[in-house]
Design a protein that fits this description.
Number of strands: 14
Number of helices: 0
Length: about 200
């Protein structure tokens, strides 16, 4: 809580919660508690939102409906430059295609002990295209600092028959940043716009 700016005051039980349970995703009214604390680095007051379920996102959108969400499984979470992820949703073919500059490549071991190839990337662009629409740019980042874009979720959150997306897109290692794309917010002739963005800095 900095200079009396408390974003948790915006949150109510009327918000929706997108949560995962046994490999399936559901929308329901937000089920949470808020605890107070103190930041060890800045000594300022903090508040933490604790979800009772395995929540991916809290959404303030009165047009959403409670229930099970139709999703795309077996996601290609990381789409490096010159990479592509093609998927079928409701009988239509879509693709996410990336471009950018790979500055450096190395082998790393993730938190699960699995060896992976990691690229340092700049000028990253991610495009979305469907079989009956023009290619449109949805993510555009000039640089990353030990981070990269990850596709967290792909499914029909707003129940309009079109795919929606949630991306993890921190620009540096001291930032949490999530992007929400809802197809119901799209203007005519487009597939999906960025509907919301949340970023939290946890540097000292």
């Amino acid at each position: 809580i900095y200079e009396n700016e408390d974003d948790t005051k915006k949150l109510t039980k009327n918000w929706f919660e997108l949560y995962e349970e046994k490999g399936n995703y559901f929308l329901d009214n937000a089920d949470y508690s808020i605890t107070k604390g103190t930041d060890a680095c800045t000594k300022s007051e903090t508040k933490t939102i604790k979800n009772k379920r395995k929540a991916l996102l809290l959404i303030d959108n009165s047009n959403l409906k409670k229930g099970k969400i139709n999703i795309v499984r077996d996601l290609k979470n990381t789409i490096w430059p010159d990479g592509e992820f093609v998927f079928v949703f409701k009988g239509k073919t879509f693709s996410l295609k990336a471009e950018g500059k790979i500055l450096n490549t190395e082998q790393i071991t993730d938190t699960d002990g699995v060896a992976k190839t990691w690229h340092e990337v700049s000028d990253y662009k991610l495009y979305l295209k469907s079989e009956n629409s023009e290619e449109e740019l949805i993510i555009n980042e000039s640089s990353f600092n030990d981070t990269f874009v990850k596709l967290l979720f792909l499914g029909d959150i707003d129940n309009d028959g079109q795919p929606d997306f949630i991306f993890d897109a921190p620009r540096n290692y001291e930032e949490n940043r999530v992007l929400l794309f809802l197809s119901s917010d799209a203007i005519e002739g487009k597939i999906v716009p960025k509907s919301a963005e949340i970023s939290i800095q946890f540097d000292c």
